[in-house]
Design brief:
1 helix; 0% strand; elongated
């Protein structure tokens, strides 16, 4: 495969993934978490590194 074919396939895959995600996602901007929560007082959650020791 040449670079152009590989680049075109990668771009097509990313575009298809974005279209699939947009078509199947339930978009609700009012319930979405803030993109940057610095100083907002909201606790982080959902990752192992955000778990506080007990």
């Amino acid at each position: 495969m040449t670079r152009r074919v590989t680049a075109a396939l990668a771009a097509a895959f990313l575009l298809a993934l974005a279209v699939f995600d947009t078509a199947t996602a339930e978009l609700d901007p009012y319930r979405a978490p803030p993109a940057l929560a610095l100083g907002s007082g909201l606790a982080s959650g959902g990752a192992h590194c955000s778990a506080l020791p007990r």
